[in-house]
Amino acid sequence: MDARLKLSIVVPTLNEALEIRAALEALAGMRARGHEVIVADGGSSDGTSELAAGRCDRLVAGARGRAQQMNAGARAASGAALVFLHADTRLPDNADVLIASALARSCWGRFDVAIEASHPLLRIVARAMSLRSRLTGIATGDQAIFVRREAFAGFPEIALMEDIAFSKAMKRRAAPACLRARVRTSARRWQSRGVLRTILLMWRLRLLYFLGARPERLARLYES
Length: 224
Known about the structure:
The protein is α/β, with parallel strands linked by helices and 224 residues long. It has helices at residues 20-25, 28-32, 48-52, 66-75, 95-102, 120-136, 162-171, 188-193, 195-210, 215-223, and strands at 7-13, 36-41, 58-61, 81-84, 89-90, 108-116, 146-148, 177-186.
């Protein structure tokens, strides 16, 4: 694909007032190079939408739920490829060039990940996430999933594990382009609950999902 292809970067948000300004300012260079940034908000009550206005190209209000929000953002996109980026995750500076090159090899892909924390367990977690993804072809939302627009059929609108379900469906079309360049993501999810506790919880949720547990049940466990 042309290295100049236009990217639509979709950022799903829900009460991200503490993160959204920095997240969008980090994407200013991408916008200056002709890419678009779409914030897909799920009904924030903390001023996220107001902070995002003027710092993105489109602000889309939709039903709460990460999958629903990302799908709404994708419907509003005009780019040749879609990039799904969490508000607390930062792309490498040359992400657009890397993505264009990757999409010449496959219709979708993801980045390796680094977790911004000094805790030694989280460095191991980040390496494990990248290695597991490379071996299984399964990407998580923290890895900035990207996809050619014409290959995108939407995220399954389920309560949790939409990234896993999406990856499984895309794997049937093509193996992902696994970029060794790393996105940087916040450690707040692990730090808020405790690092070891969160690691064990995520392992448990992933195991239950592969054993057939309903996403609604997993979402309740995640939020409890």
